[in-house]
Every structure is written in C-alpha cells, then in structure tokens.
C-alpha cells in the first residue's frame, strides 16, 4: 500500500494553472523528492497535500484514504516549512510539545517523548533553550523533531535547506537521509537543487510548469532522461542546438546551428528536419580522437575543482563545451589545440523546447 | 578625532529637541507639581513642608473612591478596547489585501481629525433625550416615550472606548504584521484547532502589541477629562474632574497638585501590577526588537 498517492491533482488560481494533472504514488518508508525550478508549483502541490489549499481537481489519499475533505489539523501529514516556522515565543521543548498537547496527551508522557525525540535528533537536553539561541542546523533538526514526535504517516519538507549556507547544506543532506532511515517514515522532499534530490532520494519526480516530466530513481533520471527539460535540469550538461539532417536507426546526424555536425542518439520522436537540442554530459566527452564524433577546438580555460575538475573547450565554431577532467591532467595549457570526441549513445537528442 | 567630535556634536544636536521636550514639558512641570503637593498652607502666603495634603486625601473617602473608580473604569475601557480592537487589527494586518490595508488604516485614523470636544458633542447629539436615537426609536414605535441615554456609566465607557481604541489598534497592527503566516499554518499542521492556534500562537506573538496598546489606552483613559465630564455629567466622578475642581474652582493648588501626583503614582502602580500579573516585562515586550 502507498503512504501517499495523488491522482490527477490540479490547482488553478483564476486563469493560471499552478499544478496540472499530477499523479504520484509513494511507497511506505521511502524518500521521495520533487525537483523543479522556482515557481513550477512545488509548494502549491505540497500545500494541497497538507490541506492548506483545496485541489481544483483530483484526489489525495493518505494510507489509502481520501483526505480531500479533511481539514489540515486532522491530517496525519506533518510539514517542515521553507523557513521552518518554529514558534519564536516558545522554548525548544514547548515547540516540540505543542503537537502532543494539541492531541491531548498526558503531561508526563509529553516530557518523556520530547526528551526522547531530542535525543534521536542529536540535541539532548536542549528543552529550555530559546529558538533564537539555536544555530541554523539545530533549528532544522528541531523543526523535524517537532513533526516526527507526532509519528506522521508522511513528512513533507519544503526546501528546508534553502536558508542554510553551503557547507551546512552539504552536511544536512546526509543527516536528513540518516534521519529518514532511522525514523523509517515516508519523506516527501521538495527542492530546486538537483544535487539534494539526487543524493537523498529513492525516487525523484522532476516537475516543470506544474507538470511532472518524469518520475524515477536518481540514476534513471541521470542516465535516461525522457525530455530535454529533464536532461538539462538533472546533472550538468552541455547543450548544443541544431537540426536533424538524417536519421539512421536510433542515431541521427545533427547539423548544429553554429556550424559543424555530430552524431547523437535520438531520445524522443524527433525526425529529419526537426529542430533539436543535443545534451552532452561533461564526463561523456573526452579529449583526443577516438569517438564517433570529433570536434576541433582550443582550450579556453581550466576549471580546477579537485576530482570534479573541468576543461572548458572553445570549439572552432564558437560554442563552449565543458569536458570532465577527473585526473586533472589539465589537457595542456590554455590556447592549445585539442579535439573533443564522444560516442553517439552518450549524446542525447531531444526536440527543442518551446519550438 | 575631527570625525568623532563631529559625530558627538550631531548626536547632541539630534538629541536636543527630545531632551528639551522631555525636560521642559514633562520632567520640570512634574517636579513642580511634586513640590507644590508637599507644601502645606499654614497662613496667607505662609507655607510649611509636610505630607498633610496626602493625609487629607486618604482621610476623605470621596477622593479615594473616585480614584479607585477611575482606575477600575479605565481597566474596563482598556479591556473592552482590546476585545473590540483585536479583531479589527487582525483583519487589517492579516486578512485584508495589501491594497485595502492602507485605506482601512486611514479610516481608523479619521476620528483623530476631529477634536475630542466635537466628538463628545457628537455622542451627545446622538444619545440625549431629544437626540437622534431616542427620537428615531419613538418614531418607529419601539419605545413609547423618549429615553435619556446620557449621563450613565455605560455611556462614559462607550465614549471612552471609542476615543482610545485607535491607540490599541495601531500597536496591535504593527506587531501582527510581523507575524509570518507560516506560523499559523504550522500551528494547524501540528494538530491545533482554531482556538489553540489563537491562544498559543497569535496571542503570545501579539503580546508586545497588547501590552503597549493596553498601557497607552489605560493611561489615556485614566487621564482623560472631556469625554467623562461631557458624557457622564455630574455623576461621572472622574478623578481628573477632582483635579480640575481643586485647581480651578477651589483655587487649592496644593490639593490639586497632590491629586495629580497620586493619579500618576496610582496609574503607574496599576500598569506595574498588570505587567506583573500577566508575567510580562517592559523590556521583553515594548522594547522587543
Ligand atoms: N495563492 C496564489 N494565488 C495565485 N497564484 C499563486 C498562489 N500561490 C502560488 N501561485 C502561483 O503558482 C505558481 C507556483 O507557486 P509555488 O509557490 O508552488 O512555486 P514553487 O515551485 O514552490 O517555487 P519556489 O521554488 O520558488 O518556492 C507561481 O507562479 C505562483 O505565482
Ligand atoms: Mg516553494
């Protein structure tokens, strides 16, 4: 059985459709992410699940039961807000006890539960601290503890790491995943940061302009995107525009807009004459001859970033390509003439967006 | 060095009007009043220092009762202004659209454009025996003969609430405006009912505004003169009326000054007790942020 399932969920604000025909099924205990650019309707979708917006169409089921008519305070989904929304006038302990008291639990039991959950999120003995005495990462964990102490069916997290600095964000990513493992609760996580979604999730739904483009495991999304949007949004990609000249089986010869030609694999139903985009992952490219397609160019700059280092190559026709260079060999010096090559199956050809 | 001196000079210049205002208009007169209140008249232009004026006040039940009554009615007015003002403030701060917010706020301010006196006469025109309401009720047959609605405690309280409610609404609006809607949603999401969210989230959040508004309202009410006198008539028994009588009618400046000092002390005591009873302190509420 699914902890949370939505079918045909749609939300319109006047003439504007914020969420359009979204369906998803989240198995019990999994970490499910919704990944999409700012303004694509992620928060709106989550607010419908939490009950703060009512759907224009479609149904929401929690543990198999429709909750569309249930008010927000009766739904057993808890939410970690984008800016956490910890109650500033209450202490840490009172924040966590709030939900238990709303539920009418006994005072003695509340104290024990609060202490227990603080232990589990790694902040034992902080009951009497004020909220403004906590660091960003601690607030984060209190916000999660405040929800988890109520043992929800699903925990909703709306870009909870957005307000943290980069270093802490990297750390909290792993922490969140560990917490989710530990609690064995279903997490629905919203983010516009693809690396968060890829690192933490069992399943990711990529959302664009109110619709789901693809649902799959992080690896599927990365290796087999179904649309140009997913290919461009998930992971790093070089994107070249062109027109299909001829198609030979799965491979197409693409004439690039800025000149030059390459051979890539058609990933949708594009045919000869169609305007297309070609997506090339940096790690699919190599310097030197050896691929089916070779493009001449010069080294424009070296982007050193440890194991994630890149070489920026300026092609003879003017486009820039990022080429992965994990060995940090540098590919020579800036200004050297080089050849970029790749195999056709590593170049994904999609119909051009908005064309 | 130059910079620091210039900085200090501009600080002094900026501070000057405020210091002058506080010093000349508040501290000095209050000191004067305190001085006069300690002066006993023993003969024509002969004075001694002592607490006789205060002893006189305590031995005279009318004065005592008037002060207590004024404080009690002021507390009532403050409570009513809070009850009536909170929903208005909440609506303006949280529910109204951004565009209509300014207009609503302005509408609350309109009564301030009219002087106290004119507003009080407005009430008189409405409420007296031959007034608008009484006449209207008679003409539609709800009552058989005109009724006098002036000169009751009720009228005084209504008139005072109407005069001071604005000073409750303004601080409430400004604190409530700072409240993130996500706090309310979190309150519901964690299982709170409307009442729980109101009691445990909205009210504590608005506490600085409630405290500030209540202090201002209470002080204004206890020190008001026109409204209770005009709407309450002879039996309004407002303490400021006593002060006026001593100063103007009886020309007994010593007693008047004593009453003034007592009013200040007593209202301050009430405010202090109020803060104590509600577990608030000036530092954590009014001065917060
Ligand atoms: N109450 C509303 N009335 C009208 N339009 C709304 C309302 N709420 C959201 N929208 C619109 O719906 C769209 C999606 O908003 P939403 O907040 O869901 O985006 P998001 O994906 O969460 O973005 P972000 O990553 O920036 O938080 C936006 O274009 C927004 O303007
Ligand atoms: Mg959002």
Silhouette of chain B: globular
* Main sheet attributes: strand count, strand direction, barrel closure of chain B: 2 strands, antiparallel
Rg of chain A, rounded, reads 24 Å
Question: Per CATH, what is the topology of chain B?
Answer: MetI-like fold
Radius of gyration of chain B: 23 Å
Q: Globular, elongated, flat, extended or rod-shaped: what is the shape of chain A? A: elongated
Largest interface: A-B, 26 and 18 residues
How far apart are the first and last residues' alpha carbons of chain A, in Å? 41 Å
Count structural domains of chain A: 2
CATH superfamily of the largest domain in chain A: P-loop containing nucleotide triphosphate hydrolases
CATH-assigned fold name of the largest domain in chain A:
Rossmann fold
Q: List segments of chain A where confidence is low: pLDDT < 50 over at least 5 consecutive residues.
A: none
Structural class of chain A: alpha+beta
H/E series of chain A, N to C?
EEEHEEEHHHEHEHEEHHEEEEEEEEEE
Task: Please tally the helical runs of chain A, counting DSSP H or I stretches of 4 or more residues.
Answer: 8
Instruction: Report the end-to-end length of chain B measured between terminal Cα atoms.
Output: 32 Å
Quaternary organisation? heterodimer
Give the DSSP E fraction of chain A (strand runs of 2 or more residues).
35-45%
The appropriate CATH architecture of the largest domain in chain A is 3-Layer(aba) Sandwich
Number of E-state strands of chain B: 2
Question: What brief labels describe this structure?
Answer:
heterodimer, A: 355 residues, alpha+beta, Rossmann fold, OB fold (Dihydrolipoamide Acetyltransferase, E2P), 2 domains, six-stranded mixed sheet, five-stranded mixed beta barrel, 8 helices, elongated, B: 289 residues, mainly alpha, MetI-like fold, two-stranded antiparallel sheet, 12 helices, binds adenosine-5'-triphosphate, binds magnesium ion
Walkthrough of the structure:
The complex is a heterodimer of chains A (355) and B (289). Chain A has helices spanning 42-50, 92-102, 107-120, 136-148, 166-183, 194-200, 218-223, 228-233, and strands spanning 2-13, 16-27, 31-35, 57-62, 65-66, 77-80, 154-158, 186-191, 203-208, 211-216, 238-248, 251-256, 261-266, 275-280, 286-287, 293-303, 310-315, 320-324, 337-342, 347-351. Chain A is an alpha+beta fold. Chain A has 2 domains: 2-229, 3-Layer(aba) Sandwich (Rossmann fold), CATH 3.40.50.300; 236-351, OB fold (Dihydrolipoamide Acetyltransferase, E2P), CATH 2.40.50. In chain A, β4 (57-62) and β5 form a beta hairpin. In chain A, α2 (92-102) crosses α3. The mean pLDDT of chain A is 90. Chain B is mostly helical and 289 residues long. Chain B has a single domain (60-288), classed as MetI-like fold, CATH 1.10.3720.10. A two-stranded antiparallel ribbon of chain B has the order 1-2. In chain B, a hairpin with a 2-residue loop joins β1 (39-43) and β2. In chain B, α3 crosses α9 (194-222), α5 runs parallel beside α10 and α9 (194-222) packs antiparallel against α12. The longest helix of chain B has 36 residues, at 2-37. The A-B interface holds A 50-52, 71-74, 77-79, 81-83, 85-90, 98-99, 102-103, 146-147, 150 and B 180, 182-183, 185-193, 196, 200-201, 204-205, 207. Bound molecules: adenosine-5'-triphosphate (ATP) and magnesium ion (MG). Magnesium ion is lined by residues 42-43, 82, 158 of chain A.
